[in-house]
Specification:
Aldehyde Dehydrogenase, Chain A, domain 2, alpha/beta, 11 strands
């Protein structure tokens, strides 16, 4: 396959994502019917994968996988038209949000390499199904894609995503191979008190999408002294429906009970808890907050903590800041942990 053939195939997949995710205009055909079955099965298998969240992931990818975007993404690299020596790249996928491993899957295949992916137990169905569509669109992919729930074998390089604990295992086990190992990261928002109601509603998307389970979800806000929380809580009500999800509300009730037993001060709107805390990784249904005394001092602090952060949401014209509402829609060239996956694959 040539690079252009691979780009065309993924652009076709993007159009299919759009068809599947547009429930008001469902596409005809057996693949679309099967897609609905797979989405229902994925939701049944993982209680956190609601149909709404799966469709949101597909809609995001539909917007990214256009020929124009793919060409723009790859234009800064010197990828050959045909990869003369494809490598097999093992991918250890996470399963915290729907299709979270898809960017690695895309990166390996678009560079003309082979994927050997170890699926997460919580996300076994979605990517393999859409890989079948890809192979139907471009049969040349047939020998380039392998999925397993067992141990990876006979690979040339590794991309692995996990917790801080599993990352230590990955570092040891894969140390002799070229690798990208990703650890826990969290995202934060910096508020000034001048945000509009719309800004804060978009921030609610950054907080609640996928129930806050992703590394791009905002788990902490930084606020100035004397901050008025009323507009913040008013905007959060755009996501009040999360209280209807049994797993989410169970976490809310549990965390609230634990904090109250410890006599910790909380701000509470009956479906979200705000807790003053210097940490980054808040539990489900909890957002940490911390006061800052100056933006320049805060910027220095966040720079020191860069290896623990995935996104900084702000409207301060800071380098690398993410706009409100955009954490779950990164561009193709916005790499997890800031590690350029394509450049890594180029060097294999």
């Amino acid at each position: 396959m040539t690079l252009n053939q691979r780009i065309d195939a993924f652009a076709d997949l993007g159009r299919f994502f759009n068809q599947v995710s547009d429930e008001n205009n469902p596409a005809a055909g057996s693949m679309s019917e099967k897609a609905n079955e797979i989405l229902a099965a994925a939701e049944a298998e993982n209680g956190w994968f609601t149909r709404q969240n799966i469709l949101a992931a597909l809609q995001s990818w539909a917007g990214l996988l256009t020929e124009e975007n793919l060409q723009q993404w790859l234009s800064k690299y010197n990828l050959p038209a045909v990869n003369p020596n494809p490598k097999t790249v093992g991918i250890v996928m996470a399963g915290n949000v729907p299709m979270v491993g898809f960017h690695d899957f895309l990166s390996v295949l678009i560079t003309g390499n082979k994927v050997q992916a170890k699926l997460a137990s919580g996300d076994r169905l979605l990517i393999p199904f859409f890989a079948e569509f890809l192979k139907k669109t471009e049969p040349g992919f047939a020998g380039f894609i392998e999925f397993t729930e067992e141990r990876l074998t006979d690979f040339d390089a590794i991309i692995a995503t996990g917790s801080d604990n599993t990352a230590r295992y990955f570092e040891y086990y894969f140390k002799k191979y070229p690798h990208i190992i990703r650890k826990n990261r969290n995202s934060v928002a910096v508020l000034t008190g001048k945000e509009t109601g719309r800004d804060l509603e978009l921030l609610a998307d950054d907080i609640f999408r996928h129930f806050g389970l992703g590394c791009r979800n905002v788990s902490k806000i930084y606020i100035p002294e004397g901050y008025n929380f009323d507009p913040f809580f008013k905007a959060m009500y755009s996501w009040k429906h999360v209280i209807n999800h049994h797993r989410y509300i169970n976490n809310y009730d549990y965390n609230k009970a634990v904090y109250l037993m410890d006599n910790l001060a909380l701000l509470d709107n009956e479906f979200l808890l705000l807790k003053e805390d210097s940490g980054f990784s808040s539990p489900i249904a909890v957002v940490f907050y911390e006061y800052y005394s100056g933006l320049s001092r805060l910027a220095s602090h966040l720079e020191e903590q860069a290896d623990r952060l995935q996104c900084i949401v702000a409207d301060l014209e800071w380098p690398g800041e993410v706009a409100f509402g955009k954490t779950q829609s990164p561009e193709l060239w916005e790499y997890a942990d800031g590690v350029d996956t394509i450049r890594f694959l180029e060097k294999l």
